[in-house]
Amino acid sequence: MNRTSTLFLASLAAVIFALAMTSAGSICDNAPCENAINVSAGENFTIELQSNSGSTGFEWWTQFDTDYLSLVSSFDQPGNAKPGWVGVPGKKAFVFSAKKPGSADVIMLLVRPWEDGTVAEKKIYPVNIS
Question: Number of folded domains in the chain?
Answer without folding.
Answer: 1
